[in-house]
Design a protein that fits this description.
The complex is a heterotrimer of chains A (about 500), B (about 775) and C (about 240). Chain A is mainly α. Classes of the chains: A mainly alpha (about 500), B alpha/beta (about 775), C alpha+beta (about 240).
Chain lengths: ~500, ~775, ~240
């Protein structure tokens, strides 16, 4: 076989891993600054108790649990991309498999942290093993989470082995000895012979097959945490698949952002991760967005019309109550996302109509945001049905005009648009989890309705969580290549075979 | 080894499997056995001491669990007839009073110039007090010593009175003018007994409560709760209870019917009912003809108007409807139900509707009580009983002492008997008298916090500043104690000797307080303190107190009740159960049921429908004299119960709401209860509030003012302005607003201080001119968003 | 084996809250700060509150209004959602039908608090505290089952706690009977709230004994359960007003 990987590749992919430059340390420093206050506040929470949160009776769960579901959700990306696309032999997946799989592992790790953060007695975690009660949904979740984390880590490691071997062989002379040792140990004596390749392929395929049901189970079981508590708003058979869909949706969003972050960090990667990836994964993104809307419509419409006395107050809180800003905010973000994604698929035709001018779009966006905030804050001076109706109509008009106006810009900027859409999805999906959890908790049956707003501790810990997630990401990819070198190699080999 | 069909080991294995499956199954059924492994550890040394609760005027019997020398739990004493084993939240929380971190731990003296408190020895406190009183006696003005006391019952009241008499001062002022005196006067002016009636609620078929807050406050809430609930579901046939009150509260919610009457018009309603009862011939003819005075017109030619004609002429239900806002058909129905479903009983308000600043309040009490007479419910099963008391040994005669005799002849400082001819105590007037220049040289505050609990309480502080020697016996640094020169802390009721009469059931009884643990701090029972002061004063005062301790006083006074001291200590209570109804007109009737305590009118056993006692005070008055007292009726009308429109402080147009300050079951009447954290926590249950004060307002009125739940509002009366949060209460008249009593302390302790505002600050400080009763319910306010 | 049950006659209940306070004193539930209490963190295993719990415009207009009050201990459900969702068997139904809580095992995940339809379960947001001398009144009883704390001794921060029908009183009553060499009788055991009830609205006893008061009352036409439709098979019985 002729050498498919060039010296240029080596330069692009390997050498940055040994350059601890200013940019790297700055990133670490910034992330640490973001993360540390939360850690300090966690230590305080550990000593004082969960009283430092805004949790109360009946709002016994809050931001930590929302983060938990969110992080479990984004961990779905790895499974879909790596396992499903692998099994379907879809080629454009190859450069981003690594990032996708690692996101699964990192997401699950930080999700696990949320559980610890939320526990009143983290020191008694061992009790779940000593006295675990298998009929309890939380035990299913813990089991599923552990299994998923182990399997996903295993899958990630399997995928890494040839690359670790490659690193072992490409380590610069001046690299520290411990790194050399690290690679040689972790590569498990990979030589890249045929037998090893056959076994690896087999193992990866097997793990991919296993990973899919475990992933689905985790998201489903997480939904069961809620639906088994017989509380209004959660007693839904749709919750399981809804969680799975939401997970894939937000997972893809995070993947887009992570990949773009990686390519921005290391410009050389752009030659491996091309627009094709954005375009192709964009299609799945669109599909998921429609499936998500379908589920949301189902849940909202049915509960709104079913005349269930316990369910309705919860739904009403979302539709017109104190959760309306979060609920409609989520929907607006999702509509915007879908529009952007569809716009990217439509050929760009220059138009002289002022409606389709970027400046118009920007002005309208500002106006739409302002009207939305006015509606959300329910400013007392604006009270009166007509004023509110007027605001609502104004918002819809501004929103539509904003989307129309910006369409041209979206079409012209594939990657920024996709990243914006992804950010919208991530934020929207965090809100979705908030909207599932909090309205039910604040609308208990025989405890007066109440409110909840995260305290400084909870906000700081949430920020820390995402700081930690990014930190793990950055550090991990300082030691291991962020795109799967051997997959790229295999892809090129395949191209050569097919093309020539 | 031959193979056996089933070896022993196999059996064991099977057993194991079976047990395992059983365990699994049990786990699946969420079922576990805990009984076998249960172990309990508790205190090494435990005992239970019977005593009496002192957190409201009910005086419930308690059994105190003392574990390793610490009071850990109070239970109701099942033997005690008032509470029969029950105990209200105040009593349950009593350990928080005993172990309160804000208790005063030793006697203290205040330097008036710096305001600094310094701890002193009891000997010094005793000497200071003795010197002060001796000086007053030497100056020939022992009456310049004044003692104000709160809900002080049992022997302590007579003991304090005796001490002041020995010194030579008539000025022992009870706080009853703030609460029960109006009802007592209503009873006195009709039935001739100066006391609260006892009601046989258990046997009444029909209970008509005129704003008597039977389930939350009143003189004996535990007793009325027990009677109420027994009548509901404790017996075979359920009674009917109708509550007439502008505020629904808990009693209105638990009653069969709630009638939101226009405030201050209860007399008209009662008389409208009387009108129907008389017209329909439903009166108890035997009673009104033979045992009542003034039903028919009387005097030789019938020229004096009697109750019947007066009511028939003036209180037609149509007219009453215009006054009260209660439909005439409803009045007729209530009258029919009341007279036709006996035994029935009409209950006077405790304070709410009666203390309206005019004599109309007393007329109301009379009118309500007369309903009982009309249907013959006086001294009848299911009706009204008269409270009997245990025979207490008489104190030895006071030694003759000219200084004291002279002092005792002076007019009382509060104007009772002089300025207020019908009044017996006018608590709030003490402050007014001092401000007007009355010489008060020494002021003792026992179980009293006038600087907080008096309407228009701000002036009390000004008054006390003028008194050179103020002594408080409070266990807490309350608003009044803060103004004192000496604070001589009394131990809490769980650490001292005392007693209480069993009241509310008619039959007599004595309930004992005893120190269930040694006093925690350097405190002294006020009884013991006064004995020591008397000893230090020497002479006739010392001779008047031949006892070594207050415990001895109790032993002496209670020696004839039928239980020896040891038995009383063991049981905590002793009583002669079973109320014996006196036969109408019998000697016992005349001796103790009707007319026995009249000071002026004949003690002839006639129930006055036409008040002869009142006639002795107002009978000869001219129109303008009566008008000065706020009485619009002339001649016979003034002696007959009638409706007098309440004169409100504040113009209706400017101040559209009537303000009511209501006592809560949780915080109760005593200031120190406000410093019990658990009571603070549960205080606002009905309005979903905690640790705060609030203003109850009808949702319609709130909407008109643009107010929503929890808005901050200013409440302004002609006497001042306070600010709290608003709570929407649907069960409330739209023209009435309520505030809770016992919030808004500026002292007492860390839990009470700064919790909301005290509604009494903006209540009319005036006193009723004939009786010296305080005004509680004739203040109008305006409410605005702040 | 007994099946302990409480019956509450709402007609006789006068919402005085003595039950709430008796429970606090018996079971050492802490007083939280005013700010905490306002934030819904007060711990009263037995609570009293007005109904409807949620202020709704349809509750009537003056003067056609009637407020109702409910008093609420634990329902000791036969199909308790809290027991079903506890991941570590810290809460369980014992052989006498009492839903109990093992404070040494609870991990503070608050699954039970979320699943309880009645909100009877409370969480120790902070370590319970009694200011100064106040801690002297704490009940010294300490019940342990197989070495694990089950109250009423003070619970640590971060665990869930709840009404136990004062089960330590049952254990004490049994021990007393045993020490006196006689059979334990069902009427030797009542929870603190039942004992103190000012309106004598609470009854307690063995539901499986056909002659017991609670068993008789359970046949009343007024007998009902709180949120009968919750599916939890609540055991604590209510007798409706009227």
């Amino acid at each position: 076989m002729q050498p498919i990987l060039t010296a240029q590749d080596r330069e692009n992919l390997v050498s940055p891993l040994f350059k601890f430059d200013r940019q790297f340390w700055m990133t670490i420093a910034v992330l640490s600054v973001i993360t540390l206050p939360g850690l300090a506040l966690y230590v305080r929470q550990l000593f004082l108790g969960l009283g430092v949160t805004d949790l109360n009776r009946p709002v016994f769960w809050g931001a930590y649990l929302v983060n938990f579901i969110f992080l479990i959700g984004i961990s779905m990306a790895g499974t879909v991309i790596s396992a499903v696309l692998h099994l379907l032999h879809i080629e454009w997946r190859r450069p981003i498999t690594r990032i996708a799989e690692s996101l699964t592992v990192f997401g699950l790790m930080t999700a696990g942290l949320q559980i610890i953060m939320d526990m009143g007695r983290p020191d008694r975690l061992i009790n779940t093993i000593l006295y675990g009660r298998l009929q309890a949904p939380l035990m299913w979740d813990i089991a599923s989470l552990t299994l998923y984390l182990l399997t996903a880590s295993f899958a990630l490691y399997l995928q890494l082995i040839p690359d670790i071997a490659f690193m072992r062989d490409s380590t610069p002379e001046n690299a520290p000895t411990w790194r050399k040792k690290l690679y040689s140990t972790l590569s498990l004596g990979w030589r890249g012979n045929k037998e090893q390749w056959t076994r690896l392929e087999k193992a990866i395929t097997t793990v991919s097959v296993i990973l899919i049901p475990i992933g689905v189970s985790l998201h489903t079981v997480t939904s069961w945490l809620f639906s088994t508590t017989v509380q209004p708003g959660w007693k839904s058979t749709i919750l399981g698949p809804y969680f799975v869909v939401g997970a894939i949706y937000s997972g893809i969003g995070l993947l887009f952002i992570a990949v773009t972050f990686a390519t921005q960090y290391n410009h050389h990667l752009k030659s491996y991760i091309t627009d094709t990836f954005y375009k192709n994964l964009g299609w799945i993104f669109i599909v998921m967005s429609f499936v998500w809307f379908y589920f949301t419509l189902n849940e909202t419409l049915v509960v709104t019309t079913e005349q269930e006395t316990l369910e309705f107050p919860v739904m009403a809180a979302k539709l017109f109550g104190e959760f309306a800003p979060a609920f409609w905010g989520m929907n607006v973000l999702m509509v915007a996302t879908t529009w952007i994604l569809i716009a990217l698929k439509v050929p760009n035709k220059a138009s002289s109509n002022p409606l389709f001018k970027t400046t118009t779009g920007l002005v309208m966006t500002v106006l739409a945001v302002v009207t939305f905030i006015a509606l959300a804050l329910n400013i007392p001076t604006l009270h009166g049905a007509f004023v509110e109706l007027g605001l609502l109509i104004a918002f819809i008009v501004f929103f539509v005009l904003a989307l129309l106006g910006l369409t041209g810009w979206f079409q012209a900027h594939l990657i920024p648009s996709t990243v914006i859409a992804s950010a919208f999805v991530l934020f929207g999906m965090w809100l979705e989890r908030w909207n599932i959890l909090m309205p039910t908790l604040t609308h208990a049956r025989i405890i007066p309705y109440t409110t909840y707003f995260p305290t400084v501790t909870e906000v700081a810990l949430t920020i820390s969580t995402f700081g930690i997630l990014t930190l793990i990401f950055v550090v991990f990819y300082k030691f291991f290549p962020s795109i799967s070198i051997w997959e790229v190699e295999a892809g090129r080999a395949l191209e050569i075979k097919n093309g020539g | 080894m031959t193979k056996q069909p089933l070896s022993r080991r196999d059996v064991l294995k099977l057993g194991g499997v079976a047990a395992g499956s059983a365990a699994t199954l049990a786990a699946m059924k969420n079922f576990m056995s805990a009984r076998a492994g249960s172990q309990i550890q508790t205190a090494v040394e435990e005992n239970v001491v019977a005593s009496t609760c002192h957190l409201c005027s009910a005086g419930c019997g308690i059994l105190v669990r003392v574990a390793d020398g610490k009071v850990v739990k109070l239970e109701g004493n099942p033997m005690h007839p008032v509470n029969q084993g029950s105990l209200c939240p105040k009593g349950q929380a009593a350990p928080e009073l005993l172990y309160n971190p804000d208790r005063i731990t030793s006697p203290m003296k205040r330097d008036r110039t710096t305001g600094q408190w310094t701890p002193i020895q009891w000997a010094e406190a005793i000497q200071l007090t003795a010197d002060k009183l001796s000086a007053l006696r030497e100056a020939g003005h022992p009456e310049q010593a004044v003692l104000m006391h709160g809900d002080t019952r049992g022997q302590m009241r007579s003991f304090l009175t005796r001490f002041m008499q020995a010194v030579g001062s008539p000025n022992v002022v009870s706080h009853e003018s703030l609460n029960i005196a109006a009802a007592k006067l209503g009873m006195y002016l009709t039935q001739g007994i100066y006391n609260l009636p006892a009601y046989d609620l258990e046997n009444a078929n029909y209970i008509l409560s005129f704003g008597a807050n039977l389930l939350e406050a009143g003189a004996n809430p535990q007793r009325t709760i027990a009677g109420w609930t027994f009548g509901r579901r404790g017996r075979a046939n359920r009674n009917k209870i109708v509550v007439i009150d502008p505020r629904q509260g808990i009693h209105g919610a638990k009653a069969d019917e709630w009638i939101p009457i226009k405030p201050g018009t209860d007399a008209a309603l009662a008389l409208g009912m009387a009108n129907v009862i008389i017209k329909s011939g439903l009166v108890d003819a035997d009673f009104v003809k033979n045992y009542c005075f003034g039903f028919d017109n009387f005097a030789s030619g019938g020229e004096r108007k009697g109750f019947r004609d007066f009511v028939l002429e003036n209180y037609d239900p149509i007219r009453v409807e215009q006054i009260t806002g209660v439909p005439s058909t409803m009045i007729a129905r209530l009258a029919g139900e009341f007279a036709g479903n006996g035994p029935s009983v009409a209950i006077m308000p405790g304070k709410g509707g009666l203390l309206n600043g005019g004599f109309g309040g007393v007329y109301t009490a009379m009118a309500v009580h007369m309903l009982n007479a009309l249907v013959g419910s006086i001294e009848k099963e299911g009706g009204v009983m008269t409270q009997r008391y245990m025979p207490c040994a008489n104190y030895p005669k006071l030694p003759s002492d000219s200084t004291a005799a002279k002092g005792l002849k002076t007019e009382r400082i509060d104007g009772a008997g002089s300025k207020f001819p019908l009044g017996r105590n006018s608590y709030q007037s003490v402050a007014d008298a001092i401000l007007e220049g009355a010489p008060v040289e020494a002021l003792f505050l026992y179980d009293a916090n006038p600087a907080f609990e008096t309407p228009g309480n701000k002036r009390v502080a000004e008054a006390f500043a003028k008194v050179p020697f103020v002594v408080s016996f409070s266990s807490f640094m309350d608003e009044s104690a803060e103004l004192a020169d000496l604070i001589l802390p009394e131990p809490t009721f769980l650490e001292r000797w005392g007693d209480d009469h069993v009241e509310g059931l008619g039959y007599p009884g004595i309930s004992l307080y005893q120190p269930v643990i040694e006093p925690l701090y350097d405190t002294l029972n006020t009884g013991d303190f006064f004995i020591k002061v008397a000893e230090a004063m020497g002479g006739s005062v010392a001779k008047a107190f031949p006892w070594k301790s207050y415990e001895e006083v109790l032993q002496f006074r209670l020696k004839d009740i039928g239980a020896d001291w040891e038995l009383l200590k063991e049981l905590g209570v002793w009583f002669n159960p079973g109320y014996r109804f006196a036969k109408r007109g019998s000697p016992q009737w005349i001796e103790s049921v009707v007319g026995a305590e009249r000071l002026n009118a004949p003690r002839d056993g006639y129930f006055d429908l036409y008040s002869r006692e009142l006639n002795c005070f107002v009978g000869k008055m001219k129109k303008d004299e009566l008008a000065a007292l706020g009485i619009t009726m002339m001649g016979d009308g003034a002696n007959l119960p009638h409706y007098e429109a309440t004169v409100f402080a504040g113009d209706e147009a400017q101040y559209p709401f009537m303000l009511n300050v209501v006592t809560l079951m949780s915080l109760g009447p005593r200031s120190d209860a406000a410093n019990m954290p658990t009571l603070q926590e549960i205080s606002g249950m009905t309005v979903r509030e905690t640790w705060d004060s609030w203003l109850e307002i009808n949702p319609q009125s709130a909407e008109a003012l643009g107010l929503v739940e929890n808005d901050r509002v200013n409440i302004e009366s002609p006497f001042g302005r306070i600010s709290t949060q608003v709570k929407l209460v649907a069960g409330l008249r739209p023209d009435v607003v309520n505030m809770p009593f016992n919030q808004g302390h500026t002292a007492v302790g860390r839990y009470a201080k700064g919790r909301g505002v005290n509604g009494l600050e903006i209540i009319n400080p005036a006193s009723e001119p004939l009786t010296g009763l305080a005004s509680f319910t004739n203040t109008r306010v305006k409410v605005s968003k702040s | 084996m007994a099946n302990w049950c409480m019956v509450i006659d709402l007609e006789k209940c006068v919402a005085c809250q003595a039950c709430s306070v008796a429970c606090r004193m018996e079971n050492n539930t802490p007083v939280v700060s005013p700010e905490e209490a306002k934030n819904g963190r007060a711990i009263r295993w037995n609570d009293v509150f007005p109904l409807p719990v949620h202020i709704a415009p349809e509750q009537g207009e003056y003067p056609n209004v009637k407020t109702h009050y409910a008093t609420r201990p634990c329902m000791h459900c036969e199909n308790a959602p809290c027991v079903k969702t506890c991941p570590v068997q810290a809460t369980y139904i014992d052989e006498e039908g009492i839903v109990r809580q093992n404070y040494d095992r609870c991990i503070g995940c608050r699954f039970c608090t979320v699943s309880c339809p009645y909100g009877v379960r409370y969480f120790n947001w902070y370590a319970p505290q009694w200011e100064g001398t106040l801690e002297n009144h704490l009940n010294p009883d300490e019940l342990s089952v197989n070495g694990s704390l089950e109250g009423p001794a003070v619970r640590p921060v971060g665990v869930v706690e709840k009404c136990t029908y004062c089960v330590h009183r049952l254990v004490k009553a049994r021990e007393r009977a045993a020490a006196e060499g006689r059979e334990f009788r069902a009427d030797e055991y009542v929870p603190a709230c039942v004992q103190t009830c000012t309106g004598k609205a609470r009854y307690f006893g063995d539901l499986d004994d056909p002659d017991s008061t609670v068993s008789q009352l359970s046949k009343s036409l007024r007998a009902t359960h709180l949120l009968e439709d919750s599916g939890a098979h609540p055991k604590t019985l209510y007798l409706a007003e009227g």
